[in-house]
Structure formats: C-alpha cells, structure tokens
Model the fold of this input.
Amino acid sequence: MRHPLHYLNEHFEEVLGSILLAIMATVAFINVIVRYCTSFSFAWSEELTVNFFVWVVLLGTARAFRQGTHLGMNIVYEALPKPARKACYWFGCALCVLFFGALCWTGTLEVIDEYELESISESLGVPVWWYTIATPLFSLLIIVRMCQRSWLDLRTGNF
Done:
C-alpha cells in the first residue's frame, strides 16, 4: 500500500485544484441564488473566484508538466530526427524554466510590494498578498514538476 504522502506527491495539483473548483462553484452558485431570490449580492464572490481561477490554472499547468501532457507541436516535433527532437526538447525545457523562473521572480517582487504597502482587497478586506503568493509558489511547483518529468524522460529516452 502506498504511503499517503506519496499519493499527495502524485496528485497534489488535482486534490488542491478540485478543492478550489468546489469552493468556486459553491460560492458562485450561492451568489446566483441569493442575487435572484433577494436584492442582495455577495460582492466578494467575484474577488474569490477570479483569484482562485488563477490558482487553478497554475495548478493545471504544473499537472500538465508532471504528466508530460502540455501543449506541443507534435506534428513538427515527431517529423524531426531523434537528435533534433532531443535538442528541441531541451531547448523547450530551458525556455519554460526561464519563463516560470521570471514569473516566480516578478511574482515574488509583487508579493513583497503588496506586503510592504499593506494592500488590502476591496471586497473581503484581506491582504492582497494572500492571493498573489500563489504565483511565485506555483511557478516554483511548475519548475519542479517540469524537472521531474524531464528527469524521467531523460532516464527512459522519451524524446
């Protein structure tokens, strides 16, 4: 039997993404019911769902890299000879690490600014960095998942 932490390592993105989607759907559904049955509306529901949506997208990106199911130009890639495929694979990996590294860096700067400026969200009145901390953290997760997949592909010769 597998250890629960092993399961969490293999399915972290799916578990957290599912929880976030359930919260988003519940909040949106309750807001729609309240809005149409009364004259009230939960102004904070949009703030929560928009920010959680960004989190879900980043988690989905990490999952795609972990499983090697991210979008690619397979027709062009598979038409290349194996050495060229290998070069394209590692070039693509390097570009992705650079992109998500830059996203992590700029996201960290944004979180630091929001923390130092004590920025507060308009609807819920919570510190804005609570939402934006996901960008650098999940960007790091994406890099880790991409490296895990690249290591597996290197060991198996899957190019």
